[in-house]
Amino acid sequence: MSLEIVVVHPDLLGTYGDGGNGVVLAQRARWRGIAAELVDATSGEALPTGDLYCLGGGEDAAQTASAERLRDEGALERAVGRGAVVLAVCAGYQILGTSFAGADGRAISGVGLLDVRTVKGNGRRAVGELLAEPADGRLPQLTGFENHGGLTIRGPDVAPLAEVAAGVGNGDGTEGAVFGRVIGTYLHGPALARNPALADLLLSWATGRRLEPLDDAEEAALREERIAAVRERRLRHRVRYELGSSS
Questions:
Q1: CA dihedral defined by 36, 184, 164, 157, rounded to 10 degrees?
Q2: d(Cα 231, Cα 136) in Å, to the nearest integer?
């Protein structure tokens, strides 16, 4: 078996290094003896046929350009219709929705693979570490960092990826969205480097088989370091608040 893993529009959606998700997927497949080809599909070329697609974060103008290209081409929708798996992060997540807010706040049509819409938030931009507890118990706690100014509203048939333990996520206490084999999330990191179990879930969907476990000692150490840092920061904030309240 051979997998084709496509990083979508890295020239537009490459601000936060989310292209690393494709690298992680390809390497974790190869470690298991599964041939994997990693393809960077820039916005000036037709989106190739693939088994697994990754979209990343980008700035407002680049996000709009990517959405327009994907809408006009229709290749990503056709791929999902054939059973392809999609992971979309931040701007990519918003692009997969029905609409998102442009730089001026105007609603811009998305691809419509997820029944979510994103509007501009009223408060401070969501910047910092994000921890979330997966909603269905298939995955361990998710870790990453977020940097976005949007609030994402899910439709009734779209499940959240997780419940927020620290950070903002969608803005309603949930993080990300899942529909079929399409996942949207605000987790940068890259997300799959921090969350190898999520990478393996995507690979299992793409291959249609149960995967043998890998030695993830280094990944586990990274996860624990980042999760512990968030817990420590939350503890310090709570202590300062309690001290301030008692003075």
A1: -130
A2: 23
Q: Tens digits of per-residue pLDDT, 165-181?
A: 999 999 999 999 999 99
Q: Is residue 231 part of a domain?
A: no
Q: Indicate whether this model's pTM tops 0.90.
A: yes
Domain of 94?
A: 2-214
Give the lowest-confidence range in 35-39, 183-187, 224-228: 224-228
- Report the C-alpha gap between 157 and 213 in whole angstroms: 32
- The enclosing domain of 187 has a CATH number of 3.40.50.880
Q: What is the CA radius of gyration of the chain?
A: 18
Distance, C-alpha 83 to centroid of its chain? 19
Total count of domains within the chain: 1
Q: Which residues are catalytic?
A: 90, 188
Determine contact, residues 165/134, Cβ cutoff 8 Å. Answer: no
- In a domain, residue 234? The reply is no
Does any domain span residue 73? yes
Q: Is residue 230 a part of any domain in this protein? A: no
Residues 7-62 pLDDT 10s: 999 999 999 999 999 999 999 999 999 999 999 999 999 999 999 999 999 999 99
